[in-house]
Amino acid sequence: MWFKGSLLVAKWTVGNSSLSGVASGVFKPELTGSLTFMNVSLRYNGTYTVEMNHIGEEKVSATFYLFVYDIIMNVSLHTDPGDAVEGQVSFTLYYSTMQGEAKEVRWFFNGLQLRNGSHYSISGKNLTINQPSRNHTGRYTVLLTNPFSSETQHWNITVLYGPDMPVLKVSPTKAVFVSGESLFLSCQAEGEPPPSATWFFNGESIATSSTGTVSLTNVKTSQSGVYTCVMINTRTKAKLQRNVTIIVYESPSGEPLCSVQAVNGSAALQFLCLWPGGAPEAQVSFPGLSVNASGYGNYSMTINDIQSLNGREIICKAEHPLIQTQCSVIPRGPVDFLPVILISMSQDEQTLVVIHCSAKATPQALVHWIKDGNHLQTGPKYQISTNTTQLFIYDFNVTTDLDTYTCTAINPLGNETVDTTLLGPQISNSSVFRSNNRTEVTLTWDVPLTSVITGFDIQMKGPELSSPSQPKLSIASDFRTIQSKPASARATTVSGLDPECTYYIRIIPKAGRTAGEQSEQHRIGPAAGLSGAAIAGMAAGIPCALLVLLIVLAFIYCGRRDRVPRYPVPRAVEKSTLNPHRLLRARLKPPPEYRHQQPERSAHLPTVNSSVRMATTV
Question: N or C, which end of the chain has less CB nearby within 10 Å?
Answer without folding.
Answer: C
